[in-house]
Amino acid sequence: MTAETSQTLDRGLRVLKLLADTDHGLTVTELSNKLGVNRTVVYRLLATLEQHALVRRDLGGRARVGLGVLRLGRQVHPLVREAALPALRSLAEDIGATAHLTLVDGTEALAVAVVEPTWTDYHVAYRAGFRHPLDRGAAGRAILSARQQPFEGPGYTLTQGEVEAGASGAAAPLLGVTGVEGSVGVVMLSDAVPERVGQRVVDAAREVAEALR
Known about the structure:
two-stranded antiparallel ribbon; DNA-binding transcription factor activity; Arc Repressor Mutant, subunit A; alpha+beta; elongated; 41% helix; Beta-Lactamase
């Protein structure tokens, strides 16, 4: 800790990170051991976080992330979208196809940013807010591929006609961005995706990931 930082705030944020990394919650004793502080400190941290609905405790006393984080989470999409737009514009103009940033929303893939090329006569109409199952379409499949440990494959996913008839897609997952699970890709009116597009979406996904770090 430095003179410019708050030890209490740091501990509170560490509590939230620990709780976010578990599905079954943590007890006061478990948090105390992980943080290296006594139980009284943990009780105070949890009480403060509960007041802001960022933490909740079940009947068994286990602490979990509270619904208050959803209010904070609603502000994430605009920030992510703004950071991704330069790379998406470059991708759309280079490929001549609709470029998109897609994030996980439960069991679905949600397009949060879309950029259409300016110079083509025809392109796929794909809008922000469009969603589809994660296991359909290049955007969702790329995200699922990144969940494999270790990450395998060419780094991108290609599909044809899975989301829209007559449209092909290519997407690459965002890698190395804490708290963000998504992909960058293009969708085009074509029976097959040109060979160079796969690597191009990988490069765009890397640009977006770097902008979000």
